[in-house]
Write a structure and sequence with these properties.
Strand order of the largest sheet: 2-1-3-12-11-4-5-10-8-9
Strand content: 15-25%
Distance between the termini: 18 Å
Helix content: 40-55%
Largest sheet: 10 strands, mixed
Number of strands: 12
Number of helices: 14
Radius of gyration: 20 Å
Length: about 350
Amino acid sequence: MKLNIALLAGDGIGPEVIDQAVKVSDAIAAKFGHEITWKPALTGAAAIDAVGEPYPDSTHEVCTSSDAVLFGAIGLPRFDNDPSNPVRPEQGLLKMRKALGLFANVRPTFTFPSLLDKSPLKRERIEGTDLVFLRELTGGIYFGDKGRRDGGETAFDNCVYTREEVQRLAKKGFELAMTRSKRLCCVDKANVLETSRLWRETVQAMEKDYPEVEVSYELVDAVAMRLVQWPNSYDVLITENLFGDILTDEASVISGSMGLMPSASMGSDIALFEPIHGSYPQATGLNIANPMATILSAAMMFENFGLAEEGKAIRNAVNQALEEGIVTEDLADGAKAYGTSEVGDWLAANI
């Protein structure tokens, strides 16, 4: 298969972890007879510094002319520490999601047998955890009207959803549930929020189209609690943008490190694959960042192309590395820590 992949390294540790994902992907291509053409483009702070815009038109053109996007991370403290800055790296991420129609963020949470005791939760609570969040990505409070009034003393952020936005996300949730254990949980705050009541009634109306799927409805605060009590009681969960942002970060630490969890953002025409962690600017250039989440995101990319064996080969290599202690300092726990590039080299060589 010939693949054209947009490569958006971004900021902070983004370029370092992306380099390792490229190494591993190229090893997979060589092993299975594929051809990958990487198409680098600027985004985030790197793009602001170069052209004054966090998601320039040239980057959008690269993305739309590619088969998929492999993305690193964006954001730097010099932007975070200046709330008055009119141009921010994160604006590029929101613009990219909207422009590419990436409305469904797929974020799995699973455990690794060799790391069960590195989780902040007890082994017996997390063993067997294998859940997937589908977070709506282009609506809600992040995209609603926002501003200040009363001379800047009052701020507002509006949360708005249409039934169509809920339906298309829920449809992906139902379809995913059908391929797994046929259990779907709709996470909302329907006892308080009107948008949540729209979510709940829309999903309830869709139940008849998927009679084999057992659907539950839970309030977001209850889910936040249960994720640290019995995460293995969940399978597929769907929710709105803000709730999904918070809950998926909470769920990510179940595995033992945020540096292990991949994700995908899906649209009707193209998909983007990225680690769930941020740009971790404090580690930039130190060769200590964990590249495995980005590498596992590349595995999801191959699987999305229908290349299941290729994705499995990456996952097997990652599991082997974890079992043999070929890990960065976040997982070393006093033992030898390998550098970011060393982990990438080891995985590529073992593939």
